[in-house]
Write a structure and sequence with these properties.
The structure holds 2 protein chains of 2 kinds. Chain A is an alpha/beta fold. Chain A has 18 helices and 16 strands. Chain B is mostly helical. Chain B is globular and about 60 Å long. Chain B starts with 7 loop residues before the first helix and ends with a helix. Classes of the chains: A alpha/beta, B mainly alpha. Chains A and B meet through helix 4, strand 6 and helix 6 of A and helix 9 and helix 10 of B.
Chain lengths: 400, 279
């Protein structure tokens, strides 16, 4: 079951949302509804599911309704219609008491301008959520210490928050959200107020923390690079509507409409596409039991000048070239193992294109894509790389 | 054309009479309570040896506002003692303290209410404007009718006069707490009460303290007017000085009021100011 389900969520700002709500059902746009009723549509028919452990990015320009959508999830803003389910439980139907309970237990939130309490120490800021829950001082301080250590603020517990830099303040914000150990983190432009270098550090830090804690993270941002960097999936918003939901690669290589395409056209594909996305499936390989004669025939058939050699369980052994094979055949060698050049460029499936380019440039062989066990998953040749750069991705079987 | 006169004045007079007739028991009760409080507190202050009182004020001044304020307070109080104004000064301080406490008991919750509800805000603000612009002499008369001459009408008039800034500044302080901080408290599941106690009130504290400071000073500024309805103390001395054309006594009493005002102002101002630097 999905951790979070958002179903047909609508938010209309104004005094008479009912009439505007009717019009949204007739499929009118935000602009038309505003002209007819004077009501502003904040979020229109948002519909998505987020799996446990996923980083789900909501992206859009300012005014696209992304922060509103985030606040509809924990009902800091009341939805006009629609449902939000967390672990199958309907949040929109919860009464005040129940809602507080859910906010305390399951939802942590991180704010754009940090929203730290200036009258509290770093430690008491981090312990705020637990204090609200009535956890006794010793226990909540213990947990707050742990959360602060996790975000790299060990030793700063008794400082004043105003003494900290922006990046450190947001670490406190993150620790505050993590201290009560919620399942879901709602992050509202959490790193947007930080300068670029620190922002990147914080993104790394978040990914690092995520790999340890495995939270479900809903991350709102207006920064496409940030979305692509940290998002497992991205929901792109425009005028209150979710225009497209997909993995970073799907959004880049397969924009749902012109808007998305315009949005993503300036993205440096080499930073986004991964080896997995452009590699070809390694159909044409020889195993160590095959002879050089077979390898040569295969290369001739496929028009290759070299071919990868694997063991029978598909572990990469190296590469043999056509020249070597010809030599071997002429001289009567039958053992292919002596021809293998073991030193071939290898990358993991999640390597970025920008790191593969130099490998390809330096080597006369294709690049092998292998997993942690050295098993051959795919092959990247120059042509596939160029195709990837042209935003076409790998060919059909390569994208699997 | 002659328009008929709307009987506003008559109505108010009738209302006051009616209140006196039907709720006399209530006003008697209030009178008893206030007399009990003021009487005992005044007795306590007067009964206390001046040196001990001066030492206490010096200690409070030093802890809250620093050594300079403490030294100034000690010198000022010795001067009051020297001018033979000690007893009326204690009476005045007693009345001001009690009036301030009553004002704050009413105005801080009311200020919180105005911050939390736009409805209450809209209802209370015109009343405050009315209270602040109406000359105190005007409501002294009905208060005297209801509570008779003495400390009580003086104290009630003082409370009415001193409340508005405390209400306004409490409300303002809470409304000025940054929205995202309140949102953060809500997002972590704070109840309304927790939001108020853990976030809004601490952050509004400098502004609320400014309101408390204003409240004290306004209460003190009422002592001469209150003296006209039978309150003793320094106000009474000033009034006697005016009536007897005794310039010396009037000045000494006036100077004593100023000294007390400065001490109270410096001490309470520093409480608010100190918080401001850490927030």
């Amino acid at each position: 079951m999905s951790k979070l389900i958002v179903k047909d969520l609508v938010k209309i700002f104004g005094k008479d949302p009912k009439k505007a709500l009717e019009l949204t059902k007739q499929g009118l746009s935000k602009k038309e509804i505003f002209e007819k009723t004077g009501q502003t549509v904040g979020v229109l028919n948002a519909d998505f599911e987020v799996q446990a452990g996923e980083i789900f990015v909501i992206m859009g320009l300012s005014g696209s309704g992304k922060s509103t959508l985030l606040r509809l999830i924990n009902r800091l803003i009341e939805p006009t219609s629609g449902k939000v389910y967390i672990d199958g439980e309907d949040i929109t139907a919860a009464d005040g008491e129940k809602l507080r309970e859910i906010r305390r237990q399951k939802l942590g939130m991180v704010f754009q301008r940090f929203a730290l309490f200036p009258h509290r120490s770093v430690l008491d800021n981090a312990a705020f959520g637990l204090e609200i829950q009535g956890v006794e001082e010793k226990e909540r301080h213990e947990k707050a210490y742990k959360a602060l250590e996790l975000v790299g603020l060990k030793g700063w517990e008794h400082s004043d928050v105003s003494q900290l830099s922006g990046g450190m303040q947001q670490r406190v914000g993150l620790a505050r959200a993590l201290a009560s150990d919620p399942d879901i983190l709602l992050m509202d432009e959490a790193f947007s107020a930080l300068d670029p270098l620190i922002r990147k550090d914080m993104q790394d830090e978040l990914l690092d923390i995520q790999s340890k804690m495995n939270k479900t993270i809903i991350f709102v941002t207006h920064d496409l690079d940030e979305a692509l960097r940290i998002g497992d999936r991205i929901a792109l918003m425009k005028d209150g509507e979710v225009v497209q939901i997909g993995t970073p690669e799907q959004i880049l290589t397969n924009p749902a409409n012109d808007y998305v395409e315009r949005f993503v056209e300036d993205v440096d594909m080499s930073k986004v596409l991964t080896a997995e996305g452009i590699m070809k499936r390694p159909d044409v390989v020889v195993t160590t039991k095959d002879g050089p004669r077979y390898a040569l025939r295969l290369m001739r058939e496929k028009g290759l000048s070299s071919i990868f050699v694997t063991s029978r369980d598909r572990k990469l052994k190296g590469i043999v070239t056509a020249d070597c094979c010809v030599d071997a055949v002429v001289n009567g060698y039958n053992d292919i193992n002596r021809l293998i050049i073991p030193d071939v460029p290898k990358v993991s499936p999640d390597t970025n294109l920008q790191d593969i380019i130099p490998l390809l440039a330096d080597s006369k062989y294709p690049v092998a894509v292998v997993n942690e066990e050295d098993r051959l998953l795919g092959v990247i040749v120059r042509g596939a790389l160029l195709a990837g750069m042209m935003k076409k991705g790998g060919d059909e079987d390569g994208a699997a | 054309m002659v328009l008929p006169k709307i009987p506003i004045g008559d109505t108010v007079a009738w209302l006051v009479d009616a209140a006196d007739e039907y709720f006399g028991w209530l006003f008697d009760f209030i009178t008893d309570v206030i007399n009990f409080l003021v009487g005992n507190f005044t007795d306590l202050l007067i009964g206390m040896p001046p040196l001990i009182f001066i030492a206490i004020v010096a200690l409070i001044g030093w802890r809250l506002a620093g050594i300079k304020v403490a030294i100034g307070s000690v010198l000022g109080l010795f001067l009051i003692w020297n001018m033979d104004m000690w007893k009326p000064a204690m009476e005045t301080i007693s009345l001001v303290v009690i009036a301030t406490v009553i004002s704050l008991i009413i105005s801080i919750p009311l200020g919180i209410a105005t911050a939390r509800s736009d409805m209450v805000h809209r209802l209370v603000m015109p009343v405050l404007d009315f209270m602040q612009t109406m000359p105190p002499f005007v409501y002294l008369v009905p208060v005297v009718i209801l509570f008779a001459i003495g400390n009580v009408p003086g104290l009630i008039a003082t409370v009415v006069f001193a409340m508005p800034p405390a209400i306004r500044l409490t409300g303002l302080g809470i409304r000025q707490v940054p929205k995202d901080l309140v949102e953060a408290a809500e997002a972590f599941g704070a109840t309304e009460g927790q939001k108020l106690v853990k976030v809004q009130l601490p952050l509004a504290m400098p502004t609320i303290m400014a309101g408390v400071n204003q409240c004290i000073l306004l209460a003190l500024s009422m002592v001469v007017i209150a003296a006209m309805v039978g309150v003793g103390g320094l106000g009474g001395m000033v009034l006697r000085g005016i009536q007897r054309l005794d310039v010396g006594m009037g000045f000494e009493a006036g100077l004593s009021i100023v000294i007390i005002a400065i001490i109270l102002d410096r001490v309470t101002q520093k409480i608010g100011g100190k918080r401001k630097t850490t927030t």
